[in-house]
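During the reporting period the student researcher (J.K.) took over the structure-prediction task from the postdoctoral fellow and processed the backlog of single-chain submissions. One of the processed entries is reproduced below for the supervisory committee.
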Amino acid sequence: MHQYLFYIGDFPIRAYGLVLSISIIIATGVAYFLARQDGRYHEHVADIGIYCGLSGLLGARLWDVFFFDWDYYQHHLTEILNVWQGGMAIQGGVILGVITGILYCRQHKIDILAMMDICAPAIIFGQGLGRCANLLNGDAFGAPTGGSFGILYPQTTLAYHTYGAQPLWPAEIWEGQLDFLIFGLLLLYRAFPHAKGQAFALYVMLYSAARFCLEYLRGDYTELVLGIFKSAQMTSVIAFALALAAFIYCAYREKQQGKKTHKTT
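J.K. obtained the following structure tokens:
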């Protein structure tokens, strides 16, 4: 686990930022490949990757600051953009990234749902690589295992500052592995007939379910909302419900459109 790869003078090159940047670039490459395979919109993928990647980073940071750590950052406003301290919420990144992508698609008259379906596997692939960055940085860590097994983090990490030398559950590692599993499932899903928009809805459902379960092992945020679930779990429940409704609606809409087409012919 290496937070600092090397220094240029006094300026540190952090593994977190480098791996996160690489994850955005590779995820954009995956989206480009899928768009070429789909036969449309590949010429827009690089621009979408840049705009959505940057806005996703901003959204992930602001979501963490305002929904998870505002009690701290309201007194340390100058540290809000200090992402290397830890604190990036993927839910906020996906939300702002998707909003940015929708605005781009509208401006360039691109089928929004079709592009979302193309990008869904790429997004979850990027998330999986992003968890590697979390591991190297010592954030998004798990709770103490209560035994002699688990990850021991260096003293320079947020995980160590929170729990000391206790072994912690490898929550970020398991989430990364589940992200890659979801990536494979989404690629498999593309091989079967489905309504437009359902691939993206399936991505949201699968990730929300995985994140909900893994939150029981996370140790960075422990406060419960309404005494029931953690904040990320509440977000996951809402996202899953909305995605399930969207999945069903997309199937219904395509069925209705098929009926209209059949009648006109």
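The committee noted the following: The chain is about 65% helix and 5% strand.
J.K. will present the remaining backlog at the next meeting.
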